[in-house]
């Protein structure tokens, strides 16, 4: 008995000493430490009963008061290193990828309060598995206000793989690379969660479930009491779609390429059409077999139904054309949705899920611009769909059976969903490669059989064996190839282009997209008008090519820009009106194209804003541009000397004003006869000079350079966009008056601005 009491006393003493140590757990209700004190929140009975409290969590010990003279714990050193690197894109022991020097707000940097907010970091020696990034994307969707970043122990040989990973996975959050080592990531990878660089951090194994990470963040977030309904939305499959109005800023210079990761392609034999999923540009390009662009589905990232111009997608993937309905069924991968595009009506509709989609339309777009739309549906009868095993999770491949059954497979061939087109419901889920091969292996082999006719030297697409289906090592490009009229089309994700191969001869033909003006102004270079008005400088993230001041009397002013394109570049096609964006602020309004501009005598800021709303409300696509390469604005021309002319007409009233003109030029490097065609290093450097920001660090530039060179193709065939950004500032005195002193005299003036592109 004495021995038993002694053992019990020793156990109680050990347990009490264990509880005195500062423990860090984050999972709904759990212990937290801030500063020196230890506050507790009761554990839920479910957590204690099922053991999820400790599942996936690590215990960390921090220095106690008696150990203040000791060195900092490694965890604190890691946080200090991350914090110290946020002010510089490149330092002695680090450099950032996918980050701009101007997006400090992305890291929660506040000039008054310093660093704030919740941070989730994926720290790893090697980013080998895309599933980890899928978890981070899911967290980013559920909790859009937390800061997510990557942290990797790097060496110079990683550059090609890292950039390939950024493009392949469409990673929008920045990644910090360092040559230093830290104990937390000696073995593989882990997730690190902390708050404001002040509280202790918690580490999770790389295989921790998504739900445990979500519970931990929910326990750490401080949501007001009136946000309970918002929290319910965050827990649903709708995730951030009704809350997020702004896409994450992407810093990759490759976003300016014509195609940014062409991931999937399908065909319509009857109408000679190709449907190219331009994944990282969140759109589907419709073209014919010769490359002439016929239409474009999708405008900006998001989840919204409507016409092709206003519909929003997020990384569209595999597609299937139904000739009977004249509809394109496609997977909206990062919206976890199945959608349908009516090609005749030019409308996009979401088939699954149906409870999370915003409807497009002129009035909804205007209300969205004004910030007056309802972000959360408060109708309790229409509860958001709860995430379950049947919900789609990053679907990628789409196959169609004869009995109106759709086979939907994720990118890594781990999950198969079956859907009945008639009911629009997912009626079956199959986990694991063996079940997928058993269920639809024959259909997959049938779709991949055309690869047997492909010359090996023509198809340089790199395949990741980790993503291949067991028993089908060549299954990776399942949705990346199709046939159309005796030709095979393959998505070349390394060269960012589409390959066209003659099936009979095996000859790889030149396939260049044309009629590029139909694509218009790229969303990733544009800024909504209300942001322009709200900020003093407007569109401040883009460099200004030219700025000029004029003192003129009020009235009508014709502005003519003469843009000098460098001789080493050439325009792929002439500039079209859809690729020009004009805006006036202050005491001026932009009236280019108006029928009767003389009817406007005085223009104020308020009137200017209403004019813009009227313009948005009446904005319609210009059908005459579709399929007509020669339909150019009469005031826009490319002279023989390589200059591009852009005109703009404004009306000014007394005061100061500014006219902002943006234009997008589709360019490529000029091929000079008798030149050294093998000097790819020179071409890559010049393209990076053209596309990269001046604020990019040397290491980041070297990484993108490595990626361009590994394509092994002629870089002079790459088509990219060049942004022309011009600002004309005007100072207008009072209106001159007639002899009676009551009537105004309206003057007509014209100015010419010469712009030289660097």
Automatic annotation (TrEMBL):
Q: Matching InterPro entries, A to Z?
A: 6-blade_b-propeller_TolB-like (IPR011042)
PANTHER family, per the entry: DUF1618 DOMAIN-CONTAINING PROTEIN (PTHR46388:SF3), NHL REPEAT-CONTAINING PROTEIN 2 (PTHR46388)
In Swiss-Prot or TrEMBL terms, this protein is called NHL domain-containing protein
Organism expressing this protein natively? Vicia faba
Organism ancestry: Eukaryota, Viridiplantae, Streptophyta, Embryophyta, Tracheophyta
């Amino acid at each position: 008995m004495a021995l038993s009491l002694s053992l019990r006393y020793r156990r109680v003493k050990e347990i009490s000493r264990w509880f005195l140590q500062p423990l860090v757990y984050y999972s709904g209700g759990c212990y937290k430490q801030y500063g020196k004190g230890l506050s507790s929140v009761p554990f839920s009975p479910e957590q204690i009963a099922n053991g999820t409290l400790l599942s996936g969590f690590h215990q960390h010990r921090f220095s106690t008061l008696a150990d203040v003279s000791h060195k900092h714990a490694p965890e604190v050193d890691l946080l200090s290193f991350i914090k110290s690197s946020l002010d510089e894109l490149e330092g002695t022991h680090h450099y950032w990828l996918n980050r701009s020097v101007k997006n400090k707000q992305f890291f929660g940097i506040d000039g008054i309060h310093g660093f704030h907010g919740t941070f989730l970091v994926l720290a790893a020696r090697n980013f080998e598995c895309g599933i980890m990034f899928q978890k981070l994307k899911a967290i980013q969707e559920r909790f859009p206000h937390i800061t997510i970043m990557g942290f990797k122990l790097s060496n110079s040989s990683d550059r090609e793989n890292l950039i390939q990973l950024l493009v392949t996975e469409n990673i929008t959050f920045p990644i910090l690379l360092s040559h230093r080592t830290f104990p937390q990531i000696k073995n593989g990878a882990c997730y690190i969660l902390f708050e404001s660089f002040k509280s202790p951090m918690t580490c999770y194994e790389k295989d921790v479930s998504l739900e445990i990470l979500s519970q931990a963040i929910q326990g750490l977030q401080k949501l007001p009491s009136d946000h309970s309904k918002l929290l319910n939305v965050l827990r649903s499959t709708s995730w951030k779609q009704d809350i997020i109005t702004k896409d994450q800023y992407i810093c990759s210079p490759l976003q300016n390429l014509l195609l940014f990761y062409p991931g999937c392609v399908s065909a319509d034999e009857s109408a000679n059409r190709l449907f190219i999923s331009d994944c990282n540009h969140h759109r589907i390009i419709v073209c014919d077999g010769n490359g002439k662009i016929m239409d474009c589905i999708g405008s900006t990232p998001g989840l919204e139904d409507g016409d092709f111009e206003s519909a929003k997608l997020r990384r569209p993937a595999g597609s299937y054309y139904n000739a009977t309905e004249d509809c394109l069924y496609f997977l909206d991968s990062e919206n976890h949705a199945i959608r349908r595009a009516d090609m005749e009506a030019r409308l996009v509709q979401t088939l699954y899920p149906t409870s999370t989609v915003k409807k497009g339309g002129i009035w909804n777009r205007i209300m969205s611009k004004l910030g007056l739309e309802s972000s959360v549906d408060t109708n309790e009868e229409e509860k958001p769909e709860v995430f379950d095993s049947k919900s789609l999770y990053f679907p990628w491949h789409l196959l169609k059976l004869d009995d109106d059954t759709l086979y939907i497979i994720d990118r890594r061939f781990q999950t198969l969903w079956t859907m009945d087109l008639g009911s629009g419901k997912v009626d079956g889920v199959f986990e694991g490669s063996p079940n997928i091969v058993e269920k639809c292996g024959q259909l997959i082999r049938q779709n991949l059989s055309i690869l047997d006719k492909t010359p090996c030297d023509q198809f340089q697409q790199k395949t990741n064996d980790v993503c291949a289906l067991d028993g089908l090592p060549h299954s990776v490009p399942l949705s990346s190839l199709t046939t159309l009229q005796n030709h095979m089309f393959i998505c070349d994700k390394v060269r960012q282009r589409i390959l066209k191969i003659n099936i009979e001869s095996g000859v790889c033909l030149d396939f260049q997209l044309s009629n590029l003006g139909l694509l218009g102004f790229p969303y990733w270079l544009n800024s909504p008008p209300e942001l322009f008005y709200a900020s003093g400088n407007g569109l401040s993230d883009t460099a200004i090519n030219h700025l000029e001041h004029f003192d003129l009397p009020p009235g009508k002013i014709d502005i003519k820009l003469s843009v000098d394109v460098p001789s080493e570049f050439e325009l792929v096609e002439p500039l079209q009106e859809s690729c020009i964006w004009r805006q006036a602020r202050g005491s001026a309004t932009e009236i280019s194209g108006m029928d009767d501009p003389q009817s406007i005598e005085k223009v104020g800021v308020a009137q200017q804003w209403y004019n813009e709303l009227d313009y948005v409300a009446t904005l319609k696509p210009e059908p005459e541009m579709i399929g007509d390469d020669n339909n150019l604005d009469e005031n826009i021309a490319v002279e023989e000397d390589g200059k591009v002319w852009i005109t703009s007409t404004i009306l000014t009233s007394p005061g100061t004003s500014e006219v902002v003109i943006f234009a997008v030029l589709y360019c490529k490097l000029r091929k000079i006869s008798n030149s050294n065609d093998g000097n790819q290093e020179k071409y890559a450097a010049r393209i990076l000079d053209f596309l990269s920001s001046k604020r990019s660090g040397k290491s980041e530039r070297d990484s993108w350079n490595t990626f361009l060179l590994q394509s092994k193709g002629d870089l002079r065939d790459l088509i990219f966009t060049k942004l022309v950004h011009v600002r004309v500032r005007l100072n207008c005195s009072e209106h001159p008056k007639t002899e009676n002193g009551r009537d105004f005299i309206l003057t007509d003036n014209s100015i010419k601005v010469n712009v030289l592109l660097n």
